[in-house]
Amino acid sequence: MSRRAVGQSGRHAVTWTDRPILTPVSSASLHYSPVRKFWILFTTLLAIVAVIGWFCVRGRFHSTAASTNPTTTAAHPEDEYSRPAAVSAGSAAASSSAVSDVRPGINPGPIHFTDMTAGSGIDFVHVSGDSSEKPFPAANGSGVGAFDYDLDGQVDLYFLTGTGFPIDRARTSPVNRCYQNLGDWMFRDVTGPTGLGDNGFSAGVAVGDFDSDGFPDVFINTFGPHRLHRNCGDGTFSEIGSAAGVDVDGWGTSAAFLDYDNDGLLDLYVCHYAVWSLETNHYCGDRARGVRIFCNPTSVEAAPHVLFHNEGDGRFRDASSETGIAGSRGRGQGVVATDVDGDGLIDLYVTNDLHPNLLFFNLGDGRFLEAGQESGTATDFMGRVQAGMGVDAADLNHDGRFDLFVTNYEGEHNSYFENLGDRLFQEVSRTRGLAAESIPWVGWGTALADYNLDGWPDVVVTNGHTDDNLQSMGRDSSYAQPPGLWLNVTGQFRYVGGGAAGEYFSRDHVGRGLAIADLDNDGDLDLVISHQDARPALLSNDCLPVNERSWIRVQLTGIESNRDAVGAVITLTFRDGQSLVQQIKGGASYLCANELRQLFYAGPDGSGLTLQIRWPSGQRTVSVPVSPQRAYRLIEQ
Q1: What does the DSSP 8-state code read for residue 353?
Q2: CB–CB of 237/187 below 8 Å?
């Protein structure tokens, strides 16, 4: 029950009478017998002792919890919003026994990024398609893909753009742009040679080797017929969206490759936002002032999402109905494909704009069970629907379970859904330190990753408003907004954004997409952030000198599993038995594709390290010895 409901029921339960509020008391009634005085004194002293004892026990409990289980810290002004009593005891006990300290994370190093965009050769400028008519899709931006299209060991970049409405396919500009990574933060425009210069309204990108030929292919989720570019292996791509059967005409946003039936072929989940056309575009704003803004999401009808099954012959089939996906709608914004319940089957979590988020549990028989409400991941901790945008999953508290994180609109906080096991989650952003600094801003792309190489995944979010003229409406909302950065300190988060994280974090931006990749192959994760109607940002992670970084890079190749090994679980075990766990995920962030290579913190001395792989096929690779500052490619046997 909400606090509002409690207050109402309490108010209605009061029974008023016609008795006076104050009743005169005679002086005689204030004289007590000696026996009565004794009992009054005795009970008063007993109450004082009880109160003192309660405070002592409370202080001891909190100090013990803080020292043994950092994920259940209660000394926080917003703890009234933490887990319900019905689940707190059991989940706290489980967390206390499972959390791995990974000692260097107790004193984490700083997180710092340097903007490398100038001089990089990347001259791409995004076009939102915004105009005086305020076409709704123009508000949401476009993403970026980070992948090695030519297999030279360097992660290349693919930037998407919108365009003006009505969409004119005869236009030669703007177009999506592809840049080859030459090393040392230098890139070359290869849009023409690759054939990736789409000129429609591109929103989201997903990258995956759907035909298992060893080369990454590119799906573009657009407003209009969606596009699929097959990598020919010679530096060029061929657009086969229509022939492959994925050229659905809709308002697309994010997308994710995954192998939901474990047949070794990557399937495709496509998010759709809503039913909209320029002809039916509503006027929202203040006509008297002549100020027009983008309309509220509830002004448009949610569109159905699509799950395509890979037929293995270059074609996909719409499997939305047979899998149970078609029964759930939402104004889709972000999607991540990951195994959240640890059963070896890849699940789907979809964030929706002012509509409950969707969590699809894979049943293993070709069907999904949607359980967003039942699992606790559909709304915030008060049961309120939020404007979900970006999404990611990671084991944020070292209990071996993968938690979920969602970015939201201004006036809402970003949501951290902590995985309690048994397909249950608790929204704990406030008690974990991730709520307060996010409330003023509109969050979009996000990534949970260990940016300072201490073994604990941190949080980065790019922010920016949808409208650039709200001040003309009398609203104090800035269009450009500061990006957010939170340091993970053994399961609790501390905000470390601003100038200390680098010049980029000291300035405001109109952010949308955010992708992560080790662009310079130096053993830490860099950032690529797309902006509305502006150049992107390439941010080099330089939190530690190169010779002080302790890392291991892992790349998997599936044989019986899908070739990209999406859904694989990788565990790095230390000499003392502690471990770090990561998954190869499909989708994540917002409109973006991250590189699939996984980076691990390798500990203070890097000795006695072993890798274990749980492949999507169910096979296991165990006890592979590894050493720091080295990259490993493991092939499924």
Answers
A1: B
A2: no
Q: Assess contact for 102 and 513: CB atoms under 8 A.
A: no
Whether the Cβ atoms of residue 403 and residue 397 lie closer than 8 Å to each other: yes
Task: Name the one residue in this structure whose structure tokens are 């104050």.
Answer: 22
- DSSP class of residue 108 equals P
Beta-strand pair 217-225/227-231: antiparallel
| pLDDT at residue number 48 | 56
Whole-number CA gyration radius for the chain: 27
Distance separating alpha carbons of residues 434 and 449, to the nearest angstrom = 15
The amino acid that residue 482 corresponds to is: P
Task: Spell 136-156 as b/e; 16+ CB within 10 A means b.
Answer: bbbbbbbbbbbbbbbeeebbb
Tokens of 431: 């008690």
pLDDT at 499 over 60: yes
Angle at the Cα of 432 (from 92 to 423), degrees rounded to 5?
50
For residue 618, the Cα-to-chain-centroid distance in whole angstroms is 26
Q: For residue 176, give every residue at least 6 positions away whose Cβ sits within 8 Å of its Cβ, in sequence order, or none.
A: 158, 159, 160, 161, 191, 196, 197, 198, 199, 202, 220
Rounded distance, CA 162 to CA 125, Å? 11
pTM for this predicted structure? 0.84
What separation in angstroms does the CA of 375 have from each of 137, 263, 392, 425?
31, 28, 17, 6
Residues 6+ apart with CB under 8 A from 438: 407, 408, 413, 414, 429, 461, 484
Q: Which is it for strands 586-587 and 332-338: parallel, antiparallel or unpaired?
A: antiparallel
pLDDT at residue 72, rounded to an integer? 30
Q: What is the DSSP string of 529-548?
A: EEETTS--EEEEE-SS-GGG
Reported as a single tens digit per residue, the pLDDT across 56-114 is 433 333 333 333 333 333 223 232 222 222 222 233 333 333 344 444 444 457 899 99
- Phi, psi at residue 587, to the nearest 5°? 70, -140
Tally Cβ neighbours within 10 Å of residue 125.
14
Helix (H) or strand (E) holding 63: helix 34-68
* Residue 3, H or E segment: helix 3-12
Place 20 in a pLDDT band, splitting at 50, 70 and 90. Answer: very low
Tell me how far apart the alpha carbons of residues 547 and 561 are, in angstroms, rounded to a whole number.
36
Provide the token pair at 428.
């704990």
Question: Tokens in use for 71?
Answer: 């994920």
**What is the distance between the alpha carbons of residues 621 and 136, in angstroms, rounded to a whole number?**
48
Report whether 349 contacts 335 (CB < 8 A). yes
Tell me if 328 sits within 8 A of 303, measured CB to CB.
no
Euclidean distance between the first and the last CA atom of the chain, given in angstroms as a whole number: 52
Mean of all residue pLDDT scores within the chain: 87
Look at residue 56 and give its three-state secondary structure.
Answer: helix
> Which pLDDT value is given to residue 46?
57
Amino acid at 132: S
Residue 338 C-alpha from the chain's centroid: 12
CA-to-CA distance for 179 and 194, rounded, in angstroms?
10
Task: Tokens for 398, please give them.
Answer: 């070292």
At residue 544, the pLDDT reads: 86
Q: What is the pLDDT of residues 155-179, one digit of tens each?
A: 999 999 999 999 998 899 999 999 9
* Residues 431, 73 contacting (CB under 8 angstroms): yes
Q: Which of 517, 624, 621 is nearest to 559 (CA)?
A: 621
Distance CA 394, CA 570 (A): 12
Pairing relationship of beta strands 551-557 and 630-635 according to DSSP bridges: parallel
Distance, CA of 611 to CA of 593 (rounded, Å)? 25
Helix (H, G, I), strand (E, B) or coil at 81: helix
Task: For residues 495 and 64, give the distance between their C-alpha atoms in angstroms, rounded to a whole number.
Answer: 25
